[in-house]
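Here is a complete protein record:
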Amino acid sequence: MNYKLKFNKKCLDVYIIHLIIFLFIGLVGIFSTPYKDLFIGIKKIITTRSILLTDYMYVSGIGATLLNASITSLLILMIYKINKTKPNGSMIMTLWLTLGFSMVGKNFINIWPTIIGVYLYSKIQKDSFSNYVLIATLSTSLSPISSELFEILNLNSYITLLLSISISILIGMILPPLAKFTLKMHQGYNLYNVGFANGLITVLIISILNYFGIEIKQNLLWSTEYKTISLFLVISLIIFLISLGIKKFHLSKLSNILRHSGRTITDFYLMYGNSSYLNMGILGIIFLSYIVIVNGDLNGPTIALLFCIIGFGAIGKHPLNTIPLVLGVSFTAYISNIQLNTPTTILTSLGSTALAPISGQFGVIIGFITGCLHLILMKYIGHLSGGINLYNNGFIAGILAIILIPIIDGFKKGDI
């Protein structure tokens, strides 16, 4: 579907709004940490392994983490501005993903190889890069791969650097056609389509490395000491979002958002303007409350997944199509005697909302069952991407969607 939004004084510019958000994040980082520690922390972020789960708050403290998130997000915003990208829900979503995952795997150095790869693909296709800038931004979910290959390849330093960057660029080049194909596979029921495509790429890479006896060591760096300042940060952003959409006109449009299944591409921003910010803020309240209720940690990984949900509030997610999935994950964990606040459980709960269109299209019960299955698949095959794909929930969601959708559709039509 194509939607056109008539901009007026009531519809604030997406660039200005996110410029304010990113500068706010950066200023909080700067004023929360001594300057000397900021520089040391940024250096640690750039030089450390960044595969899942590498919480930059654990690596370098909250100040450097927020500053990295601010710089990285501003760079992506600049790319959009240079390419004159028209604001839409997809753009908003990618900006929030960048902001969140720049606290757990992305930094302003490692994002460039895959972006360059997508750029080169656009040139091979003799097409404008502006048509690929969204997928270029999403390709940065594979940002950890260049530093990881540099770490594990036992070659001359310069050769290793050249090889690792070249492989990352190549991955960026093959991602656009693969993502286009994977979208057909799950028919738009997995909102994290690029995460699914990246997961397939990483399975291939991990398999090749393992064949030659090269193994990628898993990471679990998880901070627990910055909950108060993280809570202040997240609540401040939620309040800002709600303030953008709280007007009577925008409130009246919220009920329309709740009627959509969320199947790709359902662009709430192009259809309902600033009402999408209200939806994003409400999603933030719900899932921040969930983290607090289960006594989960607020750190790089959990904020990344929370911001992911908030971002997709502009394109596909709303309370009615996300809550059943999270309840399904939580129920499965509970009956399995797994604590709800473990890293795997809480991240899988939040990440299961990638399948919101299934819940939105087929109802609460199917959504609940889908959430149950998402946790089970994550437990047993989530490791296949080796931690290289930051959007690993999208990989699991893609597999689950291509299994469930034909079955659901078959029963509905009487084919089985």
Notes: The longest helix spans residues 157-186.
